[in-house]
């Protein structure tokens, strides 16, 4: 059995030589007696020395007259218990000896056995119905029936009711017709009738107890049937026993007779101590418990450990012996523990979770009628006292439960749980009327406690010197404490207080500080701030501004509804200091940039191509951006002006940087007197300025101009924003681009231009001393790489130089095309010329010079090209009479591909701008010639002139590769099925790259002949550049 009155499960020890014999007695015998005497409670007050001596006498008396067989969890040696209680009561040897002598002289108590017959199961059925009507007889048998051998049990089984006098037998009720009877009857067995139990235990060593179960069946002889018995030796009993016993038979006829459930408790009567005679047992036990628990707590504190509610084996043994000897009920033991623990909690430090067990036990066993009025008053007073004390701890939770101490939150949560559980109990609601509103009490306590804490912090951080600078520093420290407190409330404390443990409905009782108190205090301290303040004062005010801003942003942690409103306009308190803050940001960045330039050696920084000053400048700009974000000025118009000022400052620093970094490069170059190093310095300068340009371009996103523009919508004209921000930034970036170009030009002057001059002089030398053909071969790279590919390999440098995307620019493509033309033969150039004219013909849609309509068909079987010139339209008038005399000349180009084909012409049509020719011409040409590059039918429309050269009306190019029938094996059956082709007339352009190249080839007769013909046409052309 596990005793309910101890914090840890232990079993009590019992006297070693007691023995109980139990048997079944008739149900018509004595009724049970020995009701539990009423228990009285005394007021729980501190004990004076005389009272402490009486309590010490009580505990020594309890140890001296201990009962029951000891168990392993208890202390068996009484001397150890004496030593323990002597330390617990703080008694010296003289005091202990004197009180011990008094105890030894006191009269011994009367020993009682409190037996409870619970139930039985599996008994024999003696009626014809197969059931029985069982009852029990109990008594203490004073004659020894100890068997000679431990295995010999016959003599113990053969007991009858005549062994015990009839007036000492106790009988239970008869339970009719059952094999599993339930009695739950309690009897107190003592030796008052003959002599004291102590005298009996001193004389007898073989005491027997008898318990029989009979069936109350009236037979002819009037004798009840024997169902079984249980023999229990007193010396085997503990103070508290609760178990099932097997029913033993009288003979071996029915060995299985069932089991019986019994409880035994060894108690005292007529204790001779003063406390037992003058005070209720309940009060004495509470005082003893309080004394021992105080000693346990102090012992743990001396060892720098926290008491967790677990009593030592010595304390458990003493308390258990006293509770059983005084026959205290579980309910009164729980009350005694509650009163003792709740009072000790208010003076000694231990975990409040120890109170949960007691308050839960009281709630479980609560019956108000079991308490006397003075006990009710004492319990109600303990409730009120603990509630008041617990709320006072909550009011000072920042000091009592600091987060720096481990498990502080668990301790506070445990206290809240105890208070909530206590207020929910039936005992609290019935005794404490009207019941207090716990959430409201906690909310009031938190508010008052927070105000006290804030006042304490103000006094602690109060500056010694009454100046604005010192006040602002003190305010910053105070706000730092407030912000940290709010963060702790938001992270930890609000979760504990918003929903109290055990409450189904959440209560809004956050412990945070009301911002109205902060606002009033800060305004009171800053009433003397003006624009004439010093720089240190302004810096301290900026730190204060940041703290207030952070406090204002913690809206979710502010307890009062007017919290955000109390701090909403706090920025107005610092308007006088704002210009000094901006000036400080600018001067700091400027000085750092100048210092960075002075320290810069214009060498690459790490893997980058810019130097250290650019890194420092980037840090300066990042600090300015951080300042803007930290300000986060609430007024949109003022914020816009702040942004304009910051941008102007950064633009000034950028232009200053360009000037100083170029001066730094020049100074380093003069010092080193090395052209190569000077060029390297300029390269670093270019990279630095380019890096600075990128920094400036990132400012709109870093400063979040888009959000600023949204805030300014409706307040400032968008054009004003464009002029003040974007245009100013664009102007600065343009200046940086100009600086880059200037430095690049200077770099080219020092490096690239001399290189090009050297290349030019070398080429000129080669041109003068090499045969022209060999010089051309050298230009195109010989047999390995043509010149463009050589340039590409040179500048790309296998990935270490310019990327291919940058190299393959439009200029490079043009150069590559030009060099390809230069390296081509004259015939290739002529073919290329006609290819370009064919493409020009295909791209032309305008007929400003008129058009000519033809039909063309190629017959593969005859290798014959047939062309029908149908008409010309919209010709321009070239004669003085406003008309023309047109005719069409047909040639196959280029001539070197068709050397044997002569030109053909149509008849001349007089005075016609829309002549109808309708003439056919045949040309014998192989099909492969038609597929050559630039192969075309050139149709030139002239105005016939009698006296001079014919005037050019226009020319059209028909590509031979598009001839109908060229790609078929069979001839077209009918020329009528061939579609007409309308070709707009064009004029040659005055300048042409290919013609210019051909013109340079003076010794190439074929090129010169072609050029002469094209020049004649160009002279007659009406096209301009």
What this model shows, in words?
- It is a single chain.
- The protein is an alpha+beta fold and 1025 residues long.
- Among the domains are: 444-568, no CATH class; 580-751, Tetracycline Repressor, domain 2 (Orthogonal Bundle), CATH 1.10.357; 785-823, no CATH class; 825-985, Immunoglobulin-like (Sandwich), CATH 2.60.40.
- The protein contains 34 helices and 17 strands.
- Strands 1, 3, 4, 6 and 7 form a five-stranded mixed β-sheet that branches. Strands 5-2-9-8 form a four-stranded antiparallel β-sheet, with no helix packed on it. A four-stranded antiparallel β-sheet has the order 14-11-10-17, with no helix packed on it.
- Strand 10 (851-859) and strand 11 (864-873) form a beta hairpin.
- Mean pLDDT is 79; it is low at 1-45, 147-160, 192-221 and 504-509.
- One of its GO terms (cellular component) is exocytic vesicle.
CATH architectural type of the domain at 580-751: Orthogonal Bundle
Class of the domain at 580-751 in CATH? Mainly Alpha
Oligomer: single chain
- What structural class do you assign from the helix and strand content? alpha+beta
Helical proportion? 40-55%
In CATH terms, what is the fold-level topology of the domain at 580-751? Tetracycline Repressor, domain 2
- Tally of strands: 17
Q: Ends: how far apart?
A: 120 Å
Question: Biggest β-sheet, characterized?
Answer: 5 strands, mixed
Contiguous low-pLDDT stretches (5 residues minimum) are 1-45, 147-160, 192-221, 504-509
What average pLDDT do the residues reach?
Answer: 79
Radius of gyration: 60 Å
* Number of helical regions: 34
